[in-house]
# Entry
Amino acid sequence: WLCTEANVNARSICTSDCGDGEVLGDELCDDGNTTPGDGCNAACEVENGWACPNANQPCVGICGDGLVRGTEVCDDGDEDDGDGCNAECTAVEDGWSCAEAHSVARSICSSNCGDGQILGDELCDDGNTTPGDGCDAGCALEDGWICPLAGAPCDPNCGDGLVRGAEACDDGGEVLDVVLVDDLVVRGERR
# Structure
């Protein structure tokens, strides 16, 4: 406490000493200093995006509030795994990138197209960002292709009427009667 000296006709006035590491009086936190931006400001009030559970200890960022504070690496506004920022806000998950958050905006995480993993809103990921091979640079499926396995090359969709990849032809799935006559293929009527 800090107290003014009493004069003959008045009592001493005492106030808490913000920054001394003890939560006293009207202090909401006291992390042992009066430095702003570390969770507990110079008036011993808890700053936005922080929690200060223990006196004389550093404040901690609140994971899931969308604000990157303290030891948080990212904060995408939730405590869910599998969406770019892990549930503890301590790491960007494998296959993701998270744009640096500002003091008023949450981390924006997006999957890394071309890394061979289908994550987020990717419809395919063949391990590259080359267009024309079935999975485009934005990891969207291209017409005439099938991409059954993440990280593997896509296959032409035989029978769709589009010649893609190594297909020599694609009749769109029409079946023709074929007759072999003296080692020659003779096309017959369409069925």
Summary: The chain has a mean pLDDT of 85. DSSP finds no helices and ten strands in the chain.
